[in-house]
Specification:
five-stranded mixed beta sheet; 2 domains; three-stranded mixed beta sheet; Spore Coat Polysaccharide Biosynthesis Protein SpsA, Chain A
């Protein structure tokens, strides 16, 4: 492979995404960068995903791997196992890359082999790209790894999906693969491991990902014991890892904001996890909950999140009882 055009492996875990996978694949095929391989793991889909993927069999740059359901982390590891690229991009099966995304990220990394290339997130709703929001973040600059994670009370940790990054293969091999025991906020455990292996995180303004938001059946919308335990495990693991790297006030403050963000999800539904999360907060120190002050809804600020969750639970029970 020519030194200036290393192979990039785009790794996609696909589960029940027949509505979106075509658009996602086309956004990879339309890249201006010439040397890409696309590995798609059909993770035991039960809808028409397999039929859609069969249309791409024979495409020279695409490899389809059919697998029994392993979950998003297992499917991502399997895709990586089949990859050969010098750079790796994990990518969600329902999102979209802008055309020069990979080219722009590769160009930043050619002279910075031990760094990560990041980019912009463009969240959009109702399958309509015109609704894409411009949400500038404090991480939209070149930063040292810990700076990237803890800047602005942890805003980096609050938005670090793995697909944001182009990852040099040696860096990923040092960090290790996905934790297959996790099913929710897997990125929260995976991405910091990768980031902390990098010399620096380089911001690439031209690299944009259009992030499909609000899907009714997405993993992150399906909360129960298993996904909430996954979230708790990911939070605990990242806390331990980051404090082991730098135990400072800024790290503790950022980590506390992440616990504050997730504690409402544990409350009432999984009270043992709620109590353990409170213990983590106490262990980190006394840091105010800045997340909901800045980002919470008007009703959440007025009622408090505990009362709002109690009300939602009552309404849900009444709806089930009345059938309305």
């Amino acid at each position: 492979m020519h030194a200036n055009t290393p192979l990039v492996s785009v790794c996609i875990a696909a589960y029940n995404v027949e509505k979106y996978i075509d658009e996602t694949i086309q956004s990879v095929l339309n890249q201006t960068y010439p040397h890409i391989e696309l590995i798609i793991v059909n993770d035991g889909s039960t809808d028409g995903t397999a039929a859609t993927l069969r249309k791409y069999e024979g495409e020279p740059m695409i490899r389809i791997v059919n697998s029994p359901n392993r979950g998003p982390c297992g499917a991502s590891n399997l895709a990586f196992h089949h990859s050969q690229g010098e750079y790796i991009k994990f990518f969600d099966a329902d999102d979209i890359l802008n055309e020069n995304h990979i080219e722009a990220q590769v160009n930043r990394l050619l002279d910075n082999p031990d760094c990560l290339a990041a980019g912009q997130v463009k969240r959009f709703y109702n399958n309509d790209l015109s609704t894409a929001l411009h949400e500038p973040l404090a991480t939209w600059q070149d930063l040292e790894p810990v700076d990237w994670l803890v800047i602005d009370d942890g805003k980096g940790m609050g938005m670090m999906p793995a697909w944001l990054f182009l990852i040099p293969r040696p860096l990923l091999e040092r960090a290790g693969g996905w934790n297959e025991e996790l099913s929710l906020i897997c990125d929260f455990e995976f991405s910091p491991r990768v980031i902390l292996q990098a010399g620096k995180v380089l911001f690439v303004e031209e690299a944009k990902i259009f992030y499909r938001s609000g899907l009714p059946n997405s993993v992150s919308n399906s909360l129960g014991r298993k996904p909430l335990l996954s979230a708790f495990t990911a939070l605990s693991s990242t806390e331990s890892m980051l404090l082991g790297h730098e135990d400072s006030d800024r790290v503790r403050r950022a980590l506390s904001q992440m616990w504050h963000l997730w504690i409402p999800s544990f409350y009432l539904d999984e009270m043992d996890l709620y109590r353990k999360a409170k213990e983590h907060l106490r262990g980190l120190g006394h840091y105010p909950d800045n997340y909901f002050k800045r980002n919470g809804s008007k009703w959440m600020r007025l009622l408090g999140w505990k009362n709002q969750k109690r009300i939602k639970r009552i309404v849900k029970k009444l709806t089930l009882f009345t059938g309305r």
